[in-house]
Structure formats: C-alpha cells, structure tokens
Amino acid sequence: LSNRLQGALRTLRGEARLTEKNIGEALREVRIALLEADVALSTTKTLIETIRTRALGQEVMATLNPSQAVVKIVHDTLVETMGAACDRLNLATRPPAVVLLAGLQGSGKTTSAGKLARLLRERERKKVALVSVDVYRPAAMDQLERLADEVGVVFYKGSPTESPEVIARRAVDLARREAMDVLIVDTAGRLHIDETMMNEVRALHAVTAPIETLFVVDSMTGQDAVHTAKAFDEALPLTGVILTKTDGDARGGAALSLRAVIGKPIKFLGTGEKTDGLEPFHPERLASRILGMGDVLTLIEEAERKVDRQSAERLAEKFKKGKGFDLEDFREQMLQMERMGGMAGVLDKLPGMNDLPAAARAQLQNHDTRRLVAIINSMTPQERRFPDTIRGSRKRRIAQGSGTGVPEVNRLLKQFAQAQRMMKQMGKGGLKRMLAGMKG
Ligand code: GDP
Ligand code: MG
C-alpha cells in the first residue's frame, strides 16, 4: 500500500507545479489507500475532492518537491477532518462530573472505564468512582469491580436484581456525598442496536445528567462502526468517541469516517487490553497511519526546529565513516527524540514503521526514556562502546547504579539491538536523507 502510494508520488518528482494531470495518479492511489484503511466511501470521495481543489495549481514551495507537497496536503486534510486539536475530557461542572459510556457489547466499554479511571486518577489526580449498571451479566459487574480494585479507585456495587436507573441514581448520590470528582458509568451493550438498549441508555442519561457521553467503538468493525455511531448519535447527545482496539490490524480509517459522519471528536484511543492502554487522540499520528507511510516531512520540520544540529551532524559523520552505532549514540538519539515529543511521536513518522510487527513497535514505543538514559549513564564508556561485554555481574552493577533491575537492563540491550538493526537498514536510505534534510 505505502509502496504504491510512494511510487505514484515519485512520478511527481521534478515537476514545478501541481496540475490536474500530474496529481491525478497520486490521488487515485490516495483514494485506494483510504478505502483500504476502511474509510467510508462517501467520506473518501469528499476528501479526495478537497485535496484535489487544494492541490491544483498550487505553487510548490521552494523547500518541497511536488510529491512532498501532495503528501503534505493529503496529510493536513486528514488531520483537519479528524479534528485538529486534541480534545480533552470536559470535567468542568459541579462534581461529580459524570462520564457515561455507551456502545455495543464487546466494544470495550468496561475495559475503557477502567483505563479512563486510571488515567484520571494518575495524570489528573482526580478522585474517581466507577459504577456498572450492566444487570444482565453479573460477570460484567465483577469485571469492573476487579478493574476498579486494580487501578485503585472506588467501586459502587449494584445488584443484578435492581434496575439500571436505580443503581445509577444511587451512585450519583454516593459520589456527591463522598466528594468524588468523577463518576464513570459503564452501561450494558447488546450485540446489535435495538430499541430496548437505546431506551435504557437514554433513561440513564436522563438520570445521571452526564457532562461527557462517550460512544465506545471497536476500530476493527470498520464500516459498521459508522452505522452504529449514527444510531447512538441519534439516540443520545454524544460528546465524543473512544475508539478501541487500535493496537490491532485496523488502519484507523474508522476514525476519519466517524468524525466526518457524526461530527463528534474522538477523545481517546484504546491501545491494548491492559489498563494503561488508553491514549489521548492525536490526529497527526492516525493520519500517518492511515496513509501507511511515515510522515517524513513533519519529522524533518520538527527536526529542523528542535534537534541539536551539531549532534545530528556528528551522528551523520559517524555513519559516513561506517562506524558502528553504539549505546552512546542510542542515548543521544533518545534524548533528541524526547525533545521532539517522545518515542511514539517520532517512530510513527519514520518510513517503514508500519511494516514492523505490531509487537516490535509496541515494545519500541512503550519505554520510559529517562529510565533508559539512566541505565546507559550507569555504564562505563567501554561498555557503551562494546555492549556485548555487558554480562551478569556488569548487568547487576548497572542495574544497581541506575536504580533499576537486571530485567530492565536486558530489555534496554534488546531495544538497543533492535535500534541498531533498524539503523543499519536505514543507513543507506532514510536516515541519511533525513539528516541531510536537517543540515539544509
Ligand atoms: P464491553 O462489552 O463493551 O464492556 O467490552 P469489554 O470492555 O468487556 O471488552 C471486550 C474485549 O475487548 C475484552 O476482551 C477486552 O480485553 C478487549 N479490549 C477492549 N479494549 C481493547 C483495546 O484497546 N485493545 C485490545 N487489544 N483489546 C481491547
Ligand atoms: Mg461491559
């Protein structure tokens, strides 16, 4: 997919101006890319026309070649369609701020309730309570209770013999009395849309008066996600969307269609089964993913602004001389990446990232830069240059020195080996071009 798109864009090279003719082929490929990423047909059509209008006749900026200019227009259009800003939860109300989660069974409501509780407690220091009104499956209540326990928030227990509204009303009262900042209400879903479910969730909305009513939807359901979203949007005044299971194979086209069709912001992405798998939504990252190509352009722009040129040049020099990539370079790279908005942000933009297995990508993205840097700081210069010499007793010493553990040291060494392989692969093509871009 990305190869095809890149191929089409390559044909644009050398043209000074974008014309109907020379962008036609590129747009055909963009269209296929969008459809393959599960973007709805009607949304795709609208997008292509917007992109065509914007691209036509545009003078190509001196610093960009025409293919880059098209990538930039496509990318910017996708980002704008998905909502340019990262929309946060609105909790500005007299506490408790009620967050109501609605969606089909299996979409990830209960899991997201736990994740959201954790995020609000840990990052925003909120006092959070959870309540489940799923009276149809006692296991669903137990599932949420376990999650509440795991993430360290309060759980209000209801009984399957009570009505959902009774449980919800009591939870709101309790949350008020106990001075909770946020109450998250996890509702029951059905496998398909039906009137009973819609009536119930409407009644719950009336009883709890939520400030946020979030539609939870599985990104893997592709086109169906849009139909379901429409039905829920008609039944409830939705304030936003949580798009779950984006760690799977789905390319994320659902996000684009959702935003275009119901016009509500996507607020979070579910990125895993565990309680830390919830991320604020970043349209740029998803746009890159939908296009299936690294956003080299943005990377270069950011790099120009933030990266310390000298160290970039040193690194480039080192590659030219054919010297190996060692832990010293790895540390330098991590610090640069942190300045540029973290590993995840940078890795998403590198070409080829979409081709890495999901597991490898997740591993690369899930580490805490500062801890890794601390580990490398605890090594001797010799060890940094020759990581192979780091064995048992050295590992223990390094772990102790950095306040970590041997498994973490092992993990770092594994990540370094991966990065080294990646650098080797990119050494000839991508990285050098990238660094050349920084210097220019
Ligand atoms: P509910 O019926 O809407 O409450 O859905 P659940 O929260 O019980 O989730 C259904 C299944 O999806 C469970 O197996 C979850 O572990 C899984 N799940 C939910 N969110 C995610 C996610 O973001 N990533 C992955 N990989 N699995 C998820
Ligand atoms: Mg559930």
TrEMBL record:
Binding site for GTP: 103-110, 186-190, 244-247
Function: Involved in targeting and insertion of nascent membrane proteins into the cytoplasmic membrane. Binds to the hydrophobic signal sequence of the ribosome-nascent chain (RNC) as it emerges from the ribosomes. The SRP-RNC complex is then targeted to the cytoplasmic membrane where it interacts with the SRP receptor FtsY. Interaction with FtsY leads to the transfer of the RNC complex to the Sec translocase for insertion into the membrane, the hydrolysis of GTP by both Ffh and FtsY, and the dissociation of the SRP-FtsY complex into the individual components.
Subunit structure: Part of the signal recognition particle protein translocation system, which is composed of SRP and FtsY. SRP is a ribonucleoprotein composed of Ffh and a 4.5S RNA molecule.
InterPro entries, per the entry: AAA+_ATPase (IPR003593), P-loop_NTPase (IPR027417), Signal_recog_part_SRP54_M_sf (IPR036891), Signal_recog_particl_SRP54_hlx (IPR013822), Signal_recog_particle_SRP54_M (IPR004125), SRP (IPR004780), SRP54 (IPR022941), SRP54_GTPase_dom (IPR000897)
Gene Ontology cellular-component terms listed: signal recognition particle
The protein's enzyme class: hydrolase
Keywords: Cytoplasm, GTP-binding, Hydrolase, Nucleotide-binding, Ribonucleoprotein, RNA-binding, Signal recognition particle
Domain comment, as recorded: Composed of three domains: the N-terminal N domain, which is responsible for interactions with the ribosome, the central G domain, which binds GTP, and the C-terminal M domain, which binds the RNA and the signal sequence of the RNC.
Subcellular location: Cytoplasm
Family: Belongs to the GTP-binding SRP family. SRP54 subfamily.
Coiled-coil region(s): none
NCBIfam families per record: ffh
SMART domains membership: AAA, SRP54, SRP54_N
Gene3D superfamilies (UniProt xref): P-loop containing nucleotide triphosphate hydrolases, Signal recognition particle SRP54, nucleotide-binding domain, Signal recognition particle, SRP54 subunit, M-domain
EC number: 3.6.5.4
Catalytic reaction equation(s): GTP + H2O = GDP + phosphate + H(+)
GO BP terms in the entry: SRP-dependent cotranslational protein targeting to membrane
UniProt name for this protein: Signal recognition particle protein
A GO term, aspect molecular function: GTPase activity
HAMAP family per record: SRP54
